Amino acid sequence: MAKDRKPDAGRAGGGSSRSGSGARPAANRAGNRGRTRPPTQVVTQQRPWGLIAAAVAVVVFAAAAITYAVVQVRQADAEQIDALDEIAGIQSFDYAAGQEHVSTPVDYEQSPPVGGPHDGEWADCTGTVYDVDIRHENAVHSLEHGAVWIAYNPDEVSGDDVAKLAELVDGVSGRLMSPYAGLDSAVSLQSWNHQLKVDSADDPRIEQFADFLTFNGDVEGHYPEIGASCENPTFVTDPLVVGDGSRGTGAMTTDAPTTPTPQ
């Protein structure tokens, strides 16, 4: 009769050992399944607010500059003069070409004069600003050559106002300026056959008159000697003033127009 066999302690132990060595602890397995990579730190890139603000400022400035330029152009167009009657207050006269040269004083009908007999020597009108009341007979000869003469009352216009008027004249060929004692307005502008009197050096019509009538041979009643010279260096260095006599034949008295006209 066979005896019951006892379990092999070694094998039992061996099985238990395999179980212990072949299977990972639950905690360890769980730990492996839960392991993740260290979190990556995300850095949010800051917007370049300084550059954006600078760009916006540039755009705003450019828009403002363009707007200003457009406004200025429109204003200049609005002030553009195309005809004499667009200058409010202008007066026109009828001194024909061929006015005689005289060496004696002339009793002019207008003050300042705008035409008529005049001295054979013209006052330099190459953008000349005189600080003396130049002899009127010489100034009228300048008008005959196409110049605009700006006269001002020294009792009413001085300092910055004189400087403002001088800016329209200084260095501009075909213009001259001088004080005029006893003038019945603050400023008076003359071209041959045309005159405008205003009460302030700030009046915009001053510039309109000067721009439209300097050497303008296309207007009605235009100056007689188109192309005649405005240069007279002698008169610049030694201007004749009211009360002086004529320099006569010793002065520059020969008109030399590029387009000859009757004298």
Major pleated sheet: 6 strands, mixed
Number of helices: 7
How does the overall form come out from the CA principal axes? elongated
Binned strand content: 5-15%
Query: Total number of β-strand segments?
Result: 6
SSE run: HHHEEHEHEEEHH
What distance lies between the first and last C-alpha atoms, to the nearest angstrom?
Answer: 173 Å
Averaged pLDDT: 83
Spans of at least 5 consecutive residues whose pLDDT stays below 50 are 12-21, 256-263
- Find the structural class using helix and strand composition: alpha/beta
Instruction: Enumerate the strands of the largest sheet in spatial order, edge to edge or round the barrel.
Output: 1-6-5-3-4-2
Radius of gyration of CA atoms, rounded to a whole number: 48 Å
Into which percent range does the helicity of residues fall?
Answer: 25-40%
In terms of topology, how is this protein built?
Blueprint (H helix, E strand, L loop, with lengths): L8 H14 L3 H9 L14 H31 L11 E2 L33 E4 L6 H9 L3 E5 L7 H10 L5 E5 L7 E5 L2 E5 L6 H9 L19 H5 L26
Parallel strand pairs: 2-4, 3-4
Antiparallel strand pairs: 1-6, 3-5, 5-6
Key descriptive features of the protein:
elongated; six-stranded mixed sheet; 7 helices; alpha/beta; about 260 residues; about 35% helix
